[in-house]
Amino acid sequence: MKQNFELMANYNQLMNRQMYDYAEALDVGILNQDMGAFFHSIFGSLNHIVVADIIWLKRFAEHEAKFRSLSELASLARPDSLDEILCDSLSDLSIIREMLDELIISMTLEVQTEDFHNLLRYTDVAGIPAERNFGLLLHHFFNHQTHHRGQISTLFSQVGVDIGVTDLLQIIPNVENFIEA
């Protein structure tokens, strides 16, 4: 499981960088155009992933393992809603995205196998207390990002932008390069 999450963290960073590189080339009007997606626009969708990541990472910081790598989250306010706009510009959002991606990679390197089996107690965005398996929540965390990046790739396609290969397969090591941990 640990190796899988480390792979997902690296994939996450690679795909986010790819999305932001293409977004930076877009006209601001196109970037913010309501295209009928869950979070309306390319910018709104990129923003939502950052918002959700902050919310989840702040929850993960409360894990009984107290991951040191997540201490930098203290500088970020917890968003009040899933569609809260954190920044007015893509460049400002990109700075937060890059910081989060580094924290995610550091956390997956820091987490120990036994940590995945622990329960995480948190309060959801509606204020309802919850308690779930940390390893399964981490699966959800990465799946959520991939889900919304899939929507964003469709939005790029709708404005005539091919963002290239987004498959996880591109970073899965070949058998001869794979070392079992």
Structure report:
By secondary structure, the protein is mainly alpha-helical. It has a single domain (2-169), classed as Four Helix Bundle (Hemerythrin (Met), subunit A), CATH 1.20.120. Helix content is 51%, strand content 6%. It has 5 helices and 2 strands; from the N terminus they run ααααββα. It has helices at 2-24, 28-31, 42-60, 90-110, 134-158; strands spanning 119-123, 129-133. Strands 1-2 form a two-stranded antiparallel sheet. Helix 1 (2-24) runs antiparallel to helix 4 (90-110). The chain is globular. The model has no long low-confidence stretch (mean pLDDT 93).
Helix content: 40-55%
The fold-level CATH name is: Four Helix Bundle (Hemerythrin (Met), subunit A)
Number of helices: 5
Give the overall shape: globular
Task: Bin the strand percentage.
Answer: 5-15%
Alpha carbon gap, first and last residue:
10 Å
Which parts are unreliable, with pLDDT below 50 for 5 consecutive residues or more? Answer: none
The overall number of domains is 1
Structural class: mainly alpha
Largest sheet: 2 strands, antiparallel
| Mean of residue pLDDT values | 93
What name goes with the CATH superfamily?
A: dinb family like domain
Q: Would you state the CATH class?
A: Mainly Alpha
> How many individual β-strands?
2
